[in-house]
Amino acid sequence: MTAKITFDNDQKVFHLTNGSISYLFSVEEGETLSHLYFGKAVKAYHGQLKYPRVDRGFSGNLPGSLDRTYSKDTLPREYSSAGEMDYHEPATIVRQKDGSNALNLKFDSYEVKDGKPALKDLPASYTEDDSEAQTLSVNLKDEKSGLIYTLLYTIFSDFDIIARSVLVKNGGQEAVYLEKVASAQVDFVDRDFDVICLPGAHANERHMQRTPVTFGSQAFESRRGSSSHQMNPFIALVDKKTDEYSGDAYGFELVYSGNHSMALETDQLAQTRVLVGINDYNFSWKLEAGDEFQTPEVLLTYSGEGLNKMSQNFHEVIRERVVRSKFKHQKRPILVNNWEATYFDFDEKKLKPIVDEAKNLGIEMFVLDDGWFGHRNDDNSSLGDWKIFEKKFPKGLGHFADYVHDKGLKFGLWFEPEMISYDSDLYREHPDYLMQVPGRAPSPSRNQYILDLTRPEVVDVMYKQVADILANNGIDYVKWDMNRSLSDIYSVSLPADRQGEVYHRYVLGYYDLMGRLVDQFPDILFEGCSGGGGRFDAGVAYYMPQIWASDNTDAVARLAIQYGTSLAYPPSMMTAHVSAVPNHQTGRKTPFETRGAAAMSAVFGYELDLTKLTDEEKAMVKNQIADYNKVRDLVVNGDFYRLKSPTESNQAAWNFVSKDKKEVFVATFAVLAFAQPYLTKTKLKGLDPEKKYKNEETGEVFYGDELMELGIYDPVVHQDYMAKTYLFKAIN
Ligand code: GLA
Question: Where are the transmembrane segments (predicted)?
């Protein structure tokens, strides 16, 4: 069905629907917006959710009103502000000239348009054709300050997604300071939720955590300047009984790469407020008369069929209408990256045998990681100097790129464009480019510092340096890294009362730099990275179709990381590599096949010294590549189904199904072996029950319903860390 947004003038109710989901809100007394419903589509609304009028002690009423039964403190709201009789955390706080922070945002007007407008300077979901979505803009006005808040809602026809953001315009005469502007608020009544989030750490990202929503406040947030390893900008609210394939699940995902806050508050009446947006920590944005501020976008989804459908809703919209890269549906080249093979200790001579071996084994791209620029032999220097390290490449980088290309391989290169080392020409020439608070020594992290990307001239300098390398050295791929969190937040280019803008302006500078480069080099495949998955978010996906999921390449550790990541992001966005054993992060020795099975469940590659492989291992690489070739389109473009959670048991399992349901790739893992193992089965999901599927390895044939309902026995193997993959193809 097509997306449709209507306003019922009699009831004063907005209804956004696409035939699969509905979102309803109304205009109540005091011209206050009130949230009514978000869930499975309904044909119409006949007023049954008008909020019951009850006199609640200590929840006061509208100014000038004698009606004690109507309070903004209890009414489910659509967008709240400070200074009202609403004691929850508000969606927005604005400091005004007289020192007050009170607003009274009243419904003023609305407009419905086909399609979806772009958000100025920010990544966002998009439409390719106006018929794909409808967008509602609701204008709320605060009379005294003259501020106008435009709440933007887009509902897509083909995705169960509502994209929300807010545009604030200062229509008054005086400058104001925005101290908080959430992108979206949703107030739920009569729900007893669990909340699922994705906390983690460097080399241990995005582990799924499910806890009860409790009375009081809970926040899942980042104050690191980036979306962070520690807490991803995603939460889901689910009913207690919701599991992967049944029950209600609401997903919230911010299309933003900076400080975020996903906050919950459950009040005296057990009503739960969700606020999603830029974190208000050290945030204050000066809005002069006539100026506008656009918040990032949040993607909201509803699934009545459990978590897996919620994830698929996000997978679809991100893959189809957030990622813009021309590579989005393409098979990504199978690469070998030299980081874990050589670290900084390499030169052209040492790399050539790896390239030769890559060619021999069927690998399609060689990626040169950190250490090719300035005079970088360790991580203590040269960030900011994106010039070729001549000692390592005496004939130039182009010469080495030619060598790689002559072998028939593509050539990729690592950058970290947002950083500066003390030991760099850039710092010696422009010490003021390094972000620091005047009079205070800045804190190093990995002995590196942050470039002040709030300054357009700094963005320009980095743009020129990176573009020059990309244009002149035959680069086919870029790995864009960021190896520390922000600190010492200050820009010498901004006055004192604008220092609260630095965090967000940094993100805008990053988007500007990245946007200019990806637009200028559309044929280069860009991969995001931040010490692995420290900036794994939908904002980055808008510019780069894939992101290095974690610096942890251990296959067992990757099970939980990739499983958790799949909650909010498609496998086509995650990159995963087979690396050496003992694993460099965990010391674990896993079988080659298991490392392959984990890496093949995402965008696949290698991260080891190919010249050190035994002949047997080389044969295994060739087989792995042949196997991956059979499923790589499926992994990038198919539907993903989680089957067994690695955090709940000793096993993990998932399967991919092609859109036409003719091909199925299954990966199962058993972490520890037992002397008398209980027998376990894996039941597949998403197949056509009527189709007959042939196991490509054994030739056995089963109906889809058999594979889904009866399942298949997992192998019994007396060895730790085992994996088994299956490829099924429909024969009817
Ligand atoms: C980060 C990345 C690694 C590697 C190093 C290089 O940690 O995640 O893959 O590129 O930087 O310094």
Answer: none
CATH of 78-321, one of 1.10.3720.10, 2.30.110.10, 2.70.98.60, 1.20.1440.20: 2.70.98.60
d(CA 280, CA 299): 20
| Distance from Cα 481 to the centre of ligand 1, integer Å | 7
CA–CA separation, 3 and 17 (whole Å): 6
The residues lining ligand 1, judged by C-beta closer than 6 Å to any ligand atom, are 339, 369-370, 414, 481, 483, 529, 531-532, 548, 551
Helix (H) or strand (E) holding 122: none
CA distance 202 to 188: 34
335-638 sits in which CATH class? alpha beta
Give the alpha-carbon dihedral of 714, 716, 721, 724, to 10 degrees. Answer: -40
**What is the 3-state secondary structure of 287-319?**
ECCCCEEECCEEEEEEECEHHHHHHHHHHHHHH
Could you confirm whether 615 is annotated as catalytic?
no
From 369, 550, 553, 554, give the residue whose CB has the most ligand 1 atoms within 8 Å, as the site to mutate.
Answer: 369
Cα–Cα dist 131/33, whole Å: 27
Ligand 1 atom with the shortest distance to the CA of 548 = 8
How many residues are listed for the chain in this entry? 732
pLDDT digits (tens, 9 = 90+) for 330-368: 999 999 999 999 999 999 999 999 999 999 999 999 999
Can you tell me the distance from the alpha carbon of 85 to that of 76, in angstroms, rounded to the nearest whole number?
A: 13
Q: Which of 407, 385, 529 is CA-nearest to residue 474?
A: 407
Read off the pLDDT band of 1 (50, 70, 90). confident
User: How close is the Cα of 573 to the center of ligand 1, in Å?
Assistant: 18
544 pLDDT more than 90: yes
* 104/96 Cα distance (integer angstroms): 13
Number of CB atoms found within 10 A of residue 512's CB: 16
What pLDDT, in 10s, does the model give residues 62-110?
Answer: 999 999 999 999 999 999 999 999 999 999 999 999 999 999 999 999 9
pLDDT at residue 552 greater than cutoff 90: yes
**Which CATH architecture fits 651-730?**
Sandwich (2.60)
* CA-based nearest residue to 532, from 514, 558, 506: 558
Tens-place pLDDT, residues 428-469: 999 999 999 999 999 999 999 999 999 999 999 999 999 999
How far is ligand 1, taken at its centre, from the CA of residue 209, in Å?
26
Listed in order, strand segments (DSSP E) in 305-443 are 335-337, 365-368, 410-415, 419-420
Average pLDDT value for residue range 7-12 = 98
- C-alpha 43/C-alpha 349 separation (Å) is 69
pLDDT (tens digit, 9 = 90+) per residue, 279-315?
999 999 999 999 999 999 999 999 999 999 999 999 9
Question: Rg of the Cα trace of the chain?
Answer: 27
pLDDT at 370 over 90: yes
User: Do the domains 651-730 and 335-638 match in fold?
Assistant: no
Give per-residue pLDDT as tens, 691-721. Answer: 999 999 999 999 999 999 999 999 999 999 9
Q: Which residue is it, tokens 């244009």?
A: 471
Are β-strands 663-670 and 147-156 bridged in parallel, bridged antiparallel, or unpaired?
unpaired
Q: Alpha-carbon distance 142 to 127, whole Å?
A: 32
Q: 186 pLDDT exceeds 90? A: yes
Domains of the chain: which residue ranges?
A: 78-321, 335-638, 651-730
Decide if 480 contacts 417 (C-beta within 8 A).
yes
- Is pTM, for the whole model, over 0.70? yes
CA dihedral for 643, 646, 652, 658, sign (positive or negative): positive
687: nearest Cα among 636, 641, 633: 641
